[in-house]
Amino acid sequence: MGKDNNMNKNINPSYDYEEIEYTIKKTNPVTKVITYIFLIIWALINLFPIYFMFTFSLKSNEEIFGANIIGLPREWRWSNFSSAMNTGNMGRYFVNSIIVTVCAIAISIFAALMATYALTRIKWRLSKLTNSFLMLGLTIPLQASIVPVYVLLSKAHWLNKYSTLIVPYSAFTLSMSILICTGFMVDIPYDLDESARIDGCGLWRTFFSIILPLMKPALSTIGIYAYLQCWNEFMFANVFISDSAHRTLPVGIRALSGAYTTDWGPIGAALVIATFPTLLIYIFLSRKIQESFIAGAVKG
Fold this sequence. Notes:
Number of helices: 15
Largest sheet: none
Number of strands: 0
Number of domains: 2
Radius of gyration: 27 Å
Distance between the termini: 39 Å
Shape: globular
Strand content: under 5%
Helix content: over 70%
Structural class: mainly alpha
CATH architecture of the largest domain: Orthogonal Bundle
Order of helices and strands: HHHHHHHHHHHHHHH
CATH superfamily of the largest domain: MetI-like
Low-confidence stretches: 1-25
Mean pLDDT: 81
């Protein structure tokens, strides 16, 4: 064995050099220090907007406009949050956003799963044509549909309701949700459906007992996508909702800045209330998010 190794080294004299060179680069302390410094700087750059928004929400106008722009608040004005929740009615808008977002996510997940199951697991003549028609939703910009959707809702007397936003949000997230579900469902062996039918399972029981438990990674992916689309949406909420009882957070913040321009602390507090739920969701579900996207990308 020793002779064979020596012969291999003589045949390829650059082998040891390449391996040693790679090891030196990998364990070089200078390279590690530079890499860590770069990553720390990059992390600070990305975290600074969050820090600035949080400190902004706890300052007075004097500190915001010149006296103490970047530093920590000299007087921690937690009353800005109570002003935003009470005077600015952010509490009501926050609840409205939760209602609209949760309902839209539930409808998107259920409709996407059922549609994908019908398109990929059930054989019928127009399945491919129907799938192509549903994928056309990915090509329609949200801005181009606002006028026809508004006219349709207005003629149906369907404005200023929770469903005014829930139904369009669910519809515009459906195409992407079906596309995500398709990537997961095509990897499920069709033999499971045949085995379930042999055991006496009908169509609905096969879906709920066999297919649905295997689609859990897709559920988290669709839920995250729908959440980001619905929670931050401003255009539909601003046009379709005119009463304060059904406003969502993005529209409520805009109304707050127009009515209370002399006191910017509550506006910053409202921004924190609207932004931090998304950050918390990502912090606690980041591993699940990454696993769901990886599961949908790997085939076989």
